[in-house]
Amino acid sequence: MPLSNRKWRFYMTEELLKKYIHYFGDKTPFPPKHIMESLVRMKDDGTFDKKLKAVSSIGNKVRSEIEKVSGGKMSINHPFFNEKFDKE
Q1: 76: which DSSP letter?
Q2: How far apart (Å, rounded) are the C-alpha atoms in residues 4 and 81?
Q3: pLDDT (0 to 100) of residue 20
Q4: Dihedral of CA 14/5/29/74: which sign?
Q5: What is the reported pLDDT for 60?
Q6: DSSP 63
Q7: Contact criterion met (CB below 8 Å) for 24 and 38
Q8: What is the CA radius of gyration of the chain?
């Protein structure tokens, strides 16, 4: 496992980490916990491919809008991904 991904192990439950690795492998970047939970939940309930297809159709527009508003280039470490949109 790449060194940059190891740090996420300390923030994950063992079950979540095992499921994420099962679905996505251990060579992929490890996102923040709340994003990992969403990805695993979508894989578990079978909606991942449908939702990925829907998001992919608007992905470039969303990416450019986020970059324009934030003034920063999108990356896995972009502050946008720290937001928890499912919380009220």
Answers
A1: T
A2: 17
A3: 94
A4: positive
A5: 80
A6: H
A7: no
A8: 14
CA distance 80 to 62: 12
Residue 53: both structure tokens together: 């297809």
* DSSP conformation class of 80: G
Burial of 42 (C-beta count, 10 Å sphere; 0-12/13-18/19+) = middle
**Residue-wise pLDDT tens digits, 22-44:** 999 999 888 888 888 999 999 99
Q: Is 50 helix (H, G, I), strand (E, B) or coil?
A: helix
* Rounded Cα distance, 44 and 48, in Å: 8
Cβ neighbour number for residue 32 with a 10 Å cutoff: 16
Distance CA 62, CA 29 (A): 21
